[in-house]
Amino acid sequence: MKRMYEELGLVNTREVFKKAMEGGYAIPAYNFNNMEQLQAIMIGCAESKSPVILQVSKGAREYANQTLLRYMAMGAVKMVREMGSNIPVTLHLDHGDSFETCKSCIEFGFSSVMIDGSHLPYEGNIALTKQVVDYAHGYDVTVEGELGVLAGIEDDVVAEKSNYTDPKQVQDFVGRTGVDSLAISIGTSHGAYKFKLKPGESVPPLRFDILKEVEKRLPGFPIVLHGASSVLQKYVAMINEYGGKLEGAAGVPEEQLREAAKSAVCKINIDTDGRMVVTAIIRKVFAENPKEFDPRKYLGPARKELTEVIKHKNTNVLGSANRA
Ligand code: G3H
Ligand code: 13P
Ligand code: ZN
């Protein structure tokens, strides 16, 4: 079988998920759009010895150019190998919206794709997901499907309210589509405003009862959590202190993610937290050095801080540090 991604030094998710399931941890899936984010993710994961899923959204493909992204990922693998690191690296399409998008990514060297048919009626979601699985498995690319809808923004689709995954559907969905992993909706959402909290109110717990039901019906099957940024208050405060306006931003508490990572949740998606770290540091540098105009002087410190946050997440939240 021809694996297009092998020459890029990548792996699919099959083996890393199996180990994560057995070891009671989750693989981090970090989104990237530019060189500094990619460097921080790769160095952070290499230094903490964590497997990593590099995630590319439709927006990232449009922003950064697919060809460039392909070689950036390949270069990033070479960079960590030169650092003496052997961590497994997966290049994953985040929220693939059509068969054509997934096909193009597979042919381009991605080792894993998500087909997000969660907004379609159930049978339509199955048909689309199965079409992608049938094609992807011909190249040994693993496929993530989604059942249930997360509130917030998923690329171009904005859902007002979340629609929790119905555990009664998961066996049928996985059996009929052949997906390798399943994203479920248990109360997370995309972006920086995951919970509309009144003053004094605390973040509601994730629906671990739904997760348990899903696990019961799909023993040993890898589950994925989207919208899993914690919206770290340190960076929200820093952004606001240096001229930003993020009021009421709140995310999933780290302890809850740690608990989820010990279960069948094998992949945890984080984008917003990375964006916030970069923005907070850049704002601080500009506020303190208004004369600065060399991008390396503000992107460099942002990259350094993000590297530390990645290491923290791998070590203290996902439990993926020292697993590679
Ligand atoms: O799921 C959404 C991710 O955070 C990607 O966001 O489409 O703005 O790149 P984006
Ligand atoms: P966050 O917005 O919580 O970082 O979620 C990212 C995500 O799910 C990417 O698919
Ligand atoms: Zn997502």
Describe this structure as you would to a colleague.
It is a single chain. The protein has 324 residues and is of the alpha/beta class. The protein has one domain: Aldolase class I (TIM Barrel, Alpha-Beta Barrel). The protein has twelve helices and ten strands. It has an eight-stranded parallel beta barrel with strand order 1-2-3-4-5-8-9-10, surrounded by ten helices. Strand 4, helix 6 and strand 5 form a beta-alpha-beta unit. Helix 2 runs parallel beside helix 12, helix 7 crosses helix 8 and helix 9 runs parallel beside helix 11. The longest helix has 24 residues. The protein is globular and about 60 Å long. The site of 1,3-dihydroxyacetonephosphate has 14 residues, from strand 3, strand 10 and helix 11.
